[in-house]
Design a protein that fits this description.
MetI-like fold; mainly alpha
Length: 333
C-alpha cells in the first residue's frame, strides 16, 4: 500500500492548512494522537537514591544492634555498667549509712550482717562508700572521654584532610606530648592549677584528644581519596563542609570504638591519679583514694577496706572493655 507524502497527508485533513501554526500546538486538529507521556520514574531520581541509602543504613544498624544484643560479653558488660550508673545516680537514696560520716567506736569492723563490706579506719561503712564512690569516677571519666573524643575528632579531620604543613606541625606536637606518660602530664597540670575534678577532666581529655586524633587522621586519609570527596570538591564545597558533613558520618564507626576504649582507660587513669593523691580529693567517696588510705592496713588483716574498692574499679573497667570489644567486633568487620 502506497503512503502519501507528509504534506499530502496533512492536506487530507479538512479545513487545515499544511502551513497552519495550529499544527505546532494541537496535533489533534489533524487527527493525530497526542504525544505519549514519558513513563513515571521508578527510582525517584536523586531522592530515590538517597532514600535507598537511608533504608540500607537503617538495615545495617538494625543488624548490628541485633548482633550486639546476641553477644554475651556485651550483655554482661551492659548489666555491670548499668548497675554502676544506677549507683551513681541514685546511690545516696539507698545506701545503708552516710558515706562521709563515721564512728570511731566502729572502726575497722569486719564484714557482717550490720556492715556487709565492713568499716574503714574512720568507722565509715565501706559498702556505702563503694556505692556512692561510683558517682565521681563515672562523671569525670565520661566528661573527659567526651572532651577528648570531640577535640580529637576535629583535630584528626583537619590533619587528615589538609595534610601538608598542618599535618606535619600538629603531628610533631602529638608525638611530643604522647612521649610522656599520662601521670607525668597530670602532675604538671596539678602543679600549675591544683588537684580537682576539673583538672582531671582537662588533662585526661587533652591527652586522649591527641591519641584519638591519630586514629581519626588515618581514617580520613582513606576517605579523602574516594569519589564522593572528589564530587564534593567539584561542587565547590568548603573544607569544613567536606570534613564534618561528608567525611565525618563515614568514619563514625572507628570514633565510636575509640570512645568506648578510651572510657575504660579514663576510669583506670582517674583511679590511679586519685590513689596518688592528685585526683578526687577527700572526704568525697572515691575508690582510688579509699585504696590509698587503707592499703597500709592489709598487713594488719583489714583486707576488706582495700578489696572492695579495688573490685569496684576492676568490675567497671572490665564492663566497659567488654562493651568496647563487642562494639568493635560488630561495627568494624
Amino acid at each position: 500500500m502506497a503512503h502519501a507524502a507528509p504534506r499530502d497527508y496533512l492536506a487530507a485533513a479538512p479545513g487545515v492548512s499544511p502551513d497552519s501554526p495550529a499544527l505546532l500546538s494541537d496535533p489533534a486538529a489533524i487527527g493525530l494522537p497526542p504525544p505519549a507521556s514519558p513513563p513515571p520514574s521508578t527510582d525517584g531520581g536523586a531522592g530515590g537514591a538517597a532514600g535507598a541509602l537511608d533504608v540500607s543504613s537503617r538495615r545495617i544498624r538494625r543488624e548490628q544492634m541485633r548482633l550486639l544484643l546476641r553477644s554475651a560479653p556485651f550483655i554482661v558488660g551492659m548489666v555491670l555498667l548499668l548497675w554502676w550508673v544506677v549507683c551513681a545516680i541514685f546511690g545516696r537514696l539507698f545506701v545503708p549509712y552516710n558515706p562521709v560520716n563515721g564512728s570511731l567506736l566502729q572502726f575497722n569492723l569486719a564484714p557482717s550482717g550490720t556492715h556487709w563490706f565492713g568499716t574503714d579506719s574512720l568507722g565509715r561503712d565501706v559498702l556505702s562508700r563503694v556505692i556512692v564512690g561510683s558517682r565521681e569516677i563515672l562523671i569525670v571519666s565520661v566528661l573527659a572521654t567526651v572532651l577528648g573524643t570531640a577535640l580529637g575528632t576535629a583535630l584528626g579531620l583537619v590533619m587528615g584532610y589538609f595534610r601538608g604543613i598542618v599535618d606535619n606541625v600538629v603531628g610533631r606536637l602529638v608525638d611530643a606530648v604522647l612521649s610522656l606518660p599520662v601521670v607525668i602530664v597530670a602532675l604538671l597540670f596539678v602543679a600549675a592549677v591544683g588537684p580537682s575534678a576539673r583538672t582531671l577532666i582537662l588533662v585526661i581529655g587533652f591527652v586522649f584528644a591527641l591519641i584519638i586524633a591519630r586514629t581519626v587522621r588515618t581514617a580520613v586519609l582513606q576517605e579523602r581519596e574516594l569519589d564522593y570527596i572528589a564530587a564534593a570538591r567539584l561542587r565547590d564545597e568548603s573544607g569544613a563542609h567536606i570534613m564534618f558533613v561528608e567525611i565525618l558520618p563515614n568514619i563514625s564507626a572507628p570514633i565510636l570504638v575509640e570512645f568506648t576504649v578510651r572510657l575504660g582507660y579514663a576510669i583506670f587513669a582517674i583511679a590511679t591519679l586519685s590513689f596518688l593523691g592528685i585526683g578526687i580529693q577527700p572526704p568525697t567517696p572515691d575508690w582510688g583514694a579509699d585504696i590509698a588510705a587503707s592499703y597500709q592496713y592489709l598487713a594488719a588483716g583489714y583486707w576488706w577496706e582495700t578489696l572492695f574498692p579495688a573490685l569496684a574499679i576492676a568490675s567497671l573497667v572490665v564492663a566497659v572493655n567488654l562493651i568496647a570489644d563487642s562494639i568493635e567486633a560488630v561495627v568494624i568487620r
